[in-house]
Amino acid sequence: MKPATPLLLYIDDDAGLARLVERGLRRQGFTVEHAPDGASGLSRIQQGGIDVVALDQHMPGLDGLETLAEIQKIPNAPPVIFVTASQDSKIAITALKAGSADYLVKDTQGEFLALLDVAAKGAIEQSLVRKARDDAEAEVHASRDRYAALAAEREVLLREVNHRVGNSLQIIASLLHLQANSATDDDVKAALTNAMGRVAAVAQVHRRLYTSQDLKTVMLNQYLEALLEDLRRSAEGNRMSRLTLKAEPVEIDPDRAVAIGIIVNELVMNAVKYAYPDGAGPIHVDLLSCKDGLELSISDDGVGLQVKQNPRSTGMGQRIVTAMATKLGTRAERDPSHSGTRIVLKLGSALQRETGQVAGAA
């Protein structure tokens, strides 16, 4: 805001001209103070309250240019109008380069006062604009710093939440595993084992987020590799020894990663139970690019459609796969041309953000 009565400090060893400046500028709405030399002028500026300075070139002690250089060292120094009786343009250029806001040639009759009035008011306006700009930039930087600090704090908290959720889910999965091992009823054992796998699939996503650089996405190929390794460790005997993964490196949001992980868990466990009645066989999980985005398939070389429906099956796994596929905007379809069983899901291109080449088999 422009001061109602701006204060001009006139630094000049000519007391008569100083009185002339004071009378002339007061009529223009200024309050004028006089300093007879550079040293006293610097002392007054350091006290504060000066809106603009008119500085003479030739003075005893510190001359105008030397005083101008010292003024520039004062924090939040007022703008300076350099005043001289010389017509030499080199002095004007030197003064402007040294930091003066404007330059005037004075005369002893005071005819330059009208120009000084205009220059002083212009310098004050420019100073206010610069201050407003600097204040705005400082606020922007401060806001950016505050935002960065809050974002860093939020990231730490999210990592801690994912870490704790992952640990809690892993504890639940371990408890289900212990309960399944102690169960004597086969149906109860199977139900607990299936529940353990579903919980572990969700826990694996949170473990991925805890160790990831980006808390908003999960590397799907790495997640599936870890998930299949969990299934191998939890399987009885050697029934998972031929479980393989071929997946391209793709980033995906955590919610969709959970849905895909649960689908893979259900279909792999279904293949373990029914594909090879006489033992173990290969089970393949593939996540590859296609023209419409990504294609997820879980396949085996087992008995295929020849297998009879287990009369004790509740159909829970199929309902879970259907629900998760719906969440992903797709559906699980059987490939009729495959000799065993192959379930395929077309995942839209919106899920895909490729980051590299095809990953090797797990």
What does this entry show, briefly?
The chain folds into two domains: 7-141, 3-Layer(aba) Sandwich (Rossmann fold), CATH 3.40.50.2300; 218-362, Histidine kinase-like ATPase, C-terminal domain (Heat Shock Protein 90, 2-Layer Sandwich).
Structural notes for this entry:
The chain is α/β, with parallel strands linked by helices. The protein folds into two domains: 7-141, Response regulator (Rossmann fold, 3-Layer(aba) Sandwich); 218-362, Histidine kinase-like ATPase, C-terminal domain (Heat Shock Protein 90), CATH 3.30.565. 51% of the residues lie in helices and 16% in strands. The chain contains nine helices and twelve strands. The strands form three sheets. A five-stranded parallel beta sheet has the order 2-1-3-4-5, sandwiched between helices. The chain has a five-stranded mixed beta sheet with strand order 7-9-10-12-11, covered by helices on one side. Strand 11 (333-334) and strand 12 form a beta hairpin. Helix 6 (186-211) runs antiparallel to helix 7, helix 6 runs antiparallel to helix 8 and helix 8 (254-274) packs antiparallel against helix 9 (316-327). The longest helix is centred in the middle third of the chain and has 70 residues, at 113-182. The radius of gyration is 40 Å and the shape is rod-shaped. Mean pLDDT is 83; it is low at 352-362.
